[in-house]
C-alpha cells in the first residue's frame, strides 16, 4: 500500500536509532549535571548555615555594643548636669563677687571675704576644667564605640548581601558606600543623644529669643539670706527705725541692695524718720531713685518696720529671686530682676505694669509668674517648696505636680519618651504650677512650646495621653469644659500683655485712691480662690494640699453639701 515506506524502512530505523542514542547521551549528561548541582547546592546550604550562625554572633555583639553606647550616653548626660550645676555655682559666686567689689571701701573684712570667694571661684573653675577633660575623654570613647558599631553593621550587611568577596577595588567601594549609609542612619537614629541648640534657643515666642548664655545664672538650690531688718548687728532692732542715725540708715540701704543711693542719701537724710515721712517723689528727687521698682522696694521695706512683724517673704533676697526664675523656667529675665533688686517681699506685690517694666511682655510668662507666686503663697514662701528632681513616687498627684520646677517637668518629658523635645522648654516658663493652676494650659499649648509639628499626630496624641495622666481626670475634665465654654480665648505662645491705660473719668479719682487700693497685683494676696485670666476659679478637690486657704474653701463647700443633702426631703 505504501511501497516507499518499505523501501526506506531501514534508513528510517537507522535515523531513529541515532536519535535515541543521542537522547541517551543527553540523559546521562543531564544526570551528571544534576548530581554536580546537587553537590553545589549542599555546599551552598552549608555555607548559608555558617553565615547564619555568624550573623547571630554579630547580632549579639551589636546588642552588647549598643548597651555600652547607652551607658556612655547616660554617663555623658550626668557629666553635663554636673557641669551645668558647677557653672551655675560659678555664676553665683561671680555675682556675689561683684556685690563685694562694690563694697571694697567699707572694711578689710569684706575684702577678705571677696578673696575667699575668688579662691572658691578658682577651685570651681578647676573643677569645671576637670569635668571638661572628662567630657572630652568620654566623647573620644563614644566616637570609638560608634566606629566599632558602624564596622560591625558593615560586616553584617556585606555578609548578608553576598557570599563571594569581589575584587579589592570593588570591595573598597562597597565598604565606603555602606559606611556613608550607616553614618547617615546613626545620626538619624531615635536613640542617639540629641544635640540641643544651646547657643541659640529656638522659641515660638519672640520673647524667648532674649534668653542668652552668661549674665546671671543660678543653680537649682536657692540660698536664704538675712532679713533687711537684721543685717547689721550694731543696729538695735528694739530701737524704732525713726530713731536710727544717718550712718545706720545708709548702712541698711547698702545691705538692702540699694547702695548706689547712699551718697545722696547721706546728704539728705538726718535720721530714719526722714525716710519714713518721705514720698516716692522725694525718693526720686532727693536720692536720685529713677527706677520705680527701687522706690517700691524701699517703700515696702519702710512700711514693714513699724509693724515689727517679719514676713516670711522678706527672708528671700534678690539673689534668691534669680534662682527662683531659673526654677520656673524664665532665666532670660534674671538680669532685669537683678537690676531692679526684686526680692521675695516684692514678688507678692508685683503688678502687671511692674512686669512690663521688667521687660516681661508675654502673656504666657505673666501667667507663669502668677501661678508661681500662688505656689509660694500656698507654701508660706518656703524657699525649697519647688521640686527639682524626680522622687520615689510612681504616679504623682496634682498637689505634688503643682510644686514641680521647670527642670522637673523636663525630667517628666524624658520619662514619657519625649526626651528629644525636653530642651525646648528652657526659657518657656512652664512649671508644675502653670500646668495645674492655669485652666487654659492644655496639651496643645505644651505641644506648641515643645515645637512638635502638627503633622506628627501620633506624637501629639501620646503627649495628650501623658498630660491627662499627669494632671488627673478631674483637672483634665475642667480644662476641657473651660476650653469649650462660650467666649473662651485659647492660650497662645505669642500673645502680648499691654499696659492698662487710665480713662478720662478715672483721673478725678486717682488722687483720692491710696497706692494699695489702685495696685493691680499679678497674684492677689490671701485669696481663697485662684484668680486666673480675670476669672475667679476655685481649685478642684484634686488640688487639695496645694493651698491651705483652698483646702478650707473646699472643706466648707463639702460641709455645705452634706448639710443640704441631710435636710433634703426623702422620697
TrEMBL record:
The keyword Phosphoprotein is assigned to this record: yes
One of the GO biological process terms: neuromuscular junction development
NADP as UniProt keyword: no
SAM domain: residues covered: 244-308, 321-379
Coiled coil: 13-68, 114-148
UniProtKB keywords: Coiled coil, Membrane, Phosphoprotein, Repeat, Transmembrane, Transmembrane helix
Gene3D superfamilies (UniProt xref): 1.20.5.340, Transcription Factor, Ets-1
Residues spanning the membrane: 147-165
One GO CC annotation: presynaptic active zone
Family (UniProt): Belongs to the liprin family. Liprin-beta subfamily.
Protein purpose: May regulate the disassembly of focal adhesions. Did not bind receptor-like tyrosine phosphatases type 2A.
Name of this protein: PPFIA binding protein 2a
Organism: Gasterosteus aculeatus aculeatus
Native organism taxonomy: Eukaryota, Metazoa, Chordata, Craniata, Vertebrata
